[in-house]
């Protein structure tokens, strides 16, 4: 290798290493977490996924649940082309755990302006945590193509 | 012991007419696919500005049908056809010998038949499943079979390269593989391994499922197999263009390639680092965060060969620019032969690629991906990379390649120059719109014009996207016009030579660098990394979660 090449290579390695450190800092210190849920929906032989979801807790009773003074759990079912429930009311400043799964195809779960961004894959349960600091109406939308009516699939999150 | 062959200016490649015609046909099939894809792309760009035009396209019943055509025709048929034709030619030139005619015919036949089957499925509305065909969306079996045949055509092309290389080696015992041939064959070895994911996905899981032989499929496994191939596929789009940037552009600008070894090392780094597709699945459930973070680190290492490419190619350009009288820190850049449309298009493509690389780093950045995953940021990024670094470079290559293949002069150099600038300006505007929209949470793959929801910050982003996208379409149409007229009524000329560069440092014939040519070691490294990165997922995911029942409401 030529001397210039070595210098350039060195700068490149250092630069990429710094970027990785920044990512590590974001994960460890700033609590920016990427979901890695290992929960699954098991389907009995001969059964179907939709039935399995509707009979598995917490999706047998979807909706908003208060589980502590400032803690809420929101369980959401995605189905082409709706979220159930389609209106979610939460207090500002609460710690919220979102649990969602799909009964049919792969869907998306995005709330613009927040750090909520997940894929919903049939058979897998997606989980993320977030605290809405500001009151307002947020859009929850499906950002993965899921058939002809994909662009009509959304819900509203009211933070009061 | 003979010396290494770097460059043989006295030897011209005389490719038999039949082989030349077949290579031309393969590449034109790619251009035809690009035309179909680009024309459909206009409907998607305008949709972001709330202008709906897909219903005026013949046979288009939904936005997503057109989007599927756009993705499959542009990202698979166009890119694969070009790679098959172009890399076969660079292999022949690198070794100064003809290739195997039977395999050339078979590769073209497989590509053409596969494209027809997939086109039938898409245009008849039976396969509006997008380029990623995530199960349990289920397309007609002809769609999957078509894709299989298209991939098989790349394998047949690989076989042709291997056969040609083997017969060359028999006559040149102990010699280094010439650089052009080396990077050509490594491109295909890399792809052969990379394509195993999609091959298993379609042949083992999705195709039998679409034929009704099995009732269900595992959506997460299918998707993971798709992305096993779905990331390295971008380097299969890119490496044929790297061949041009490394081995041809320096010659075209009057420069020289700096180091033979550096180029071989770059291609081998791509070959070794295949299993990074999981960075497309950061937001997926069912994959551990450790595996995702490991993927982030490995993905960052694959930026190294691209950074080295930036160095080598810019160095070669600088040598050329200074020879042409350019001085100062940046003067050499303006002294490049900008009036040569082949150079202008490819240098513009390189500049756009810098932005593509930066946005790519953001996509790969684990937690940062939360802000942009599946938003229009992503298509904003990849129209800078595959949509320009690759597509505009291919257009630039076509400006010497088509005259070479046809023995005709380019119909209009002026039109070709204008085309490159319009396209490059278009993509910068387009990507600006998409990236800003994506940062504001505008979803990708969504018919925004039809959506009942919106955010105020998306409006301007959508309009910018539509304006830039329209310019890109105009730029691309001017390319098709110029190339079409070249083929039909271009002035006949004597056969030209393929631009082919000299290197300053010749390949070593002793020492460790010789081991670059022993591909089996590098292939072994690739497989070890694949097992390390995908083994844990497969081990924890089995038994398969086969819960996906066919879904066809598209």
Characterization of this structure:
By secondary structure, chain A is of the alpha+beta class. Chain A has two domains: 1-32; 49-159, Cupredoxins -  blue copper proteins (Immunoglobulin-like), CATH 2.60.40. Chain A has helices at residues 3-28, 49-54; strands at residues 63-66, 71-79, 82-84, 87-90, 95-102, 107-111, 116-120, 126-131, 136-141, 154-159. In chain A, strands 1, 2, 3, 5 and 8 form a five-stranded mixed β-sheet that branches. In chain A, β2 (71-79) and β3 form a beta hairpin. The relative contact order of chain A is 0.16. The mean pLDDT of chain A is 94. By secondary structure, chain B is an all-alpha fold. Chain B has a single domain, classed as Cytochrome c oxidase-like, subunit I domain (Cytochrome C Oxidase, Chain A, Up-down Bundle). Chain B is built from 19 helices and two strands. In chain B, strands 1-2 form a two-stranded parallel ribbon. In chain B, α3 packs antiparallel against α4 (141-171) and α14 (341-364) packs antiparallel against α16. The longest helix of chain B is centred in the first third of the chain and has 33 residues, at 63-95. Residues 1-10 of chain B have low confidence and may be disordered. The interface between A and B is large, with 63 and 73 residues.
Fold topology:
The complex is a heterodimer of chains A (160) and B (554).
Chain A: H1 3-28, H2 49-54, E1 63-66, E2 71-79, E3 82-84, E4 87-90, E5 95-102, E6 107-111, E7 116-120, E8 126-131, E9 136-141, E10 154-159
Parallel strand pairs in A: 2-5, 4-10
Antiparallel strand pairs in A: 1-2, 2-3, 5-8, 6-7, 9-10
Chain B: H1 17-47, H2 63-95, H3 101-123, H4 141-171, H5 179-194, H6 196-210, H7 219-230, H8 232-247, H9 249-252, E1 257-259, H10 260-272, H11 289-301, H12 303-323, H13 328-334, H14 341-364, H15 369-372, H16 377-406, H17 413-439, H18 458-489, E2 503-505, H19 519-541
Parallel strand pairs in B: 1-2
Helix pairs in contact in B: 1-2, 1-3, 1-18, 2-3, 2-4, 2-5, 2-8, 3-4, 4-5, 4-6, 5-8, 5-10, 5-19, 6-7, 8-16, 10-12, 12-13, 14-16, 14-17, 16-17, 16-18, 17-18
């Amino acid at each position: 290798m030529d001397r210039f090449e070595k210098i350039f290579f060195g700068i490149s390695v250092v630069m990429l290493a710094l970027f990785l450190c920044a990512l590590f800092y974001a994960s460890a210190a700033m609590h920016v977490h990427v979901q890695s849920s290992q929960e699954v929906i098991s389907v009995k032989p001969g059964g179907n996924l939709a039935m399995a979801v509707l009979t598995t807790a917490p999706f047998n009773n979807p909706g908003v649940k208060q589980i502590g003074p400032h803690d809420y759990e929101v369980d959401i079912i995605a189905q082409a082309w709706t979220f159930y429930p389609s209106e979610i009311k939460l207090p500002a400043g609460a710690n919220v755990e979102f649990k969602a799964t799909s009964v049919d195809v792969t869907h998306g779960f995005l709330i613009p302006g927040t750090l909520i961004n997940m894929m919903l894959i049939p058979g897998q349960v997606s989980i993320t945590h977030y605290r809405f600091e500001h009151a307002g109406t947020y859009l929850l939308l499906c950002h993965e193509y899921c058939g002809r009516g994909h662009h009509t699939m959304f819900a509203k999150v009211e933070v009061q | 012991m003979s010396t290494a062959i770097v460059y043989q200016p006295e030897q011209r490649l005389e490719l038999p007419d039949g082989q030349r015609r077949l290579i031309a046909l393969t590449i034109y099939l790619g251009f035809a696919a690009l035309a179909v894809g680009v024309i459909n792309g206009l409907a998607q760009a305008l949709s972001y500005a709330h202008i709906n035009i897909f219903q005026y396209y013949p046979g288009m019943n939904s936005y997503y049908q057109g989007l599927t055509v756009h993705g499959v025709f542009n990202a698979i048929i166009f890119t694969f056809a070009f790679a098959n034709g172009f890399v076969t030619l660079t292999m022949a030139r690198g070794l100064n010998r003809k290739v195997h005619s039977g395999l050339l015919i078979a590769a073209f036949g497989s590509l053409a038949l596969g494209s027809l089957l997939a086109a039938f499925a898409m245009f008849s509305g039976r396969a509006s499943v997008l380029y990623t065909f995530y199960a349990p969306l289920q397309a007609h079996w002809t769609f999957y079979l078509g894709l299989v045949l298209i991939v098989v055509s790349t394998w047949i092309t690989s076989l042709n390269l291997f056969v040609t290389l083997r017969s060359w080696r028999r006559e040149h015992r102990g010699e280094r593989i010439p650089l052009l041939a080396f990077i050509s064959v490594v491109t295909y070895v890399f792809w052969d391994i990379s394509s195993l994911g999609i091959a298993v996905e379609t042949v083992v899981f999705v195709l039998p499922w679409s034929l009704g032989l099995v009732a269900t499929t595992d959506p997460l496994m299918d998707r993971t197999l798709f992305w096993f191939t779905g990331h390295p596929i971008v380097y299969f789009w890119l490496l044929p263009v790297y061949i041009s940037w490394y081995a041809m552009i320096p010659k075209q600008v009057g420069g020289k390639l700096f180091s033979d070894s550096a180029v071989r090392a770059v291609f081998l780094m791509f070959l070794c680092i295949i299993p990074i597709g999981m960075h497309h699945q950061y937001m997926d459930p069912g994959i551990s965060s450790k595996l995702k973070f490991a993927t982030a680190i490995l993905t960052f290492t694959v930026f190294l060969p691209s950074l080295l490419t930036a160095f080598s190619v810019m160095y070669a350009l600088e040598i050329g620019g200074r020879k042409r009288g350019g001085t100062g820190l940046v003067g050499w850049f303006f002294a490049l032969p900008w009036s040569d449309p082949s150079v202008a298009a490819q240098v513009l493509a390189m500049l756009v690629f810098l932005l593509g690389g930066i946005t790519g780093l953001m996509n790969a950045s684990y937690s940062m991906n939360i802000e942009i995953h599946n938003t229009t940021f992503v298509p904003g990024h990849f129209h800078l990379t595959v949509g320009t670094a690759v597509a505009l470079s291919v257009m630039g290559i076509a400006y010497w390649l088509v005259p070479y293949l046809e023995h005709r002069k380019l119909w209009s150099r002026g039109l070709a120059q204008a085309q490159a600038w319009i396209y490059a300006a278009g993509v910068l505007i387009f990507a600006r719109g998409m990236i800003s929209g994506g940062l504001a949470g505008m979803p990708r793959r969504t018919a925004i014009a039809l959506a009942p929801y919106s955010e105020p910050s998306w409006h301007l982003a959508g309009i910018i996207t539509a304006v830039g996208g329209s310019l890109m379409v105009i730029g691309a149409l001017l390319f098709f016009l110029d190339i079409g007229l070249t083929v039909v009524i271009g002035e006949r000329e004597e056969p030209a030579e393929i631009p082919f560069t000299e290197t300053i440092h010749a390949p070593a014939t002793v020492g460790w660098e010789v081991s670059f040519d022993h591909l089996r070691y590098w292939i072994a490294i690739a497989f070890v990394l694949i097992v390390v990165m995908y083994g844990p997922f497969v081990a924890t995911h089995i038994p398969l979660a086969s819960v996906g029942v066919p879904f066809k409401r598209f």
